[in-house]
Amino acid sequence: MTASLTHPNTIAIYDYGRTFDGTFYYAMEYVEGVTLRACVDEEGPMPPARAVHVLLQICGSIGEAHAHGLIHRDLKPSNVMLCERGRVLDFVKVLDFGLVRPQTQTPDLALTSTNSLTGTPLYMPPEAIEAPDTLDARGDIYQIGAIGYFLLSGHHVFRGDNLVEVLDQHLHAEPKPLGADIPDVLRGWILRCLAKAPGDRPDSVDELAAALETLAAETPWSRDRAAAWWRDWWSAHPAADAAGGDAGSLPSGAEVDIGHRMGHAPRA
Question: Which of 10, 135, 145, 148 could make an SS bond with 194 (beta carbons 3.0 to 4.6 A apart)?
Answer without folding.
Answer: 145
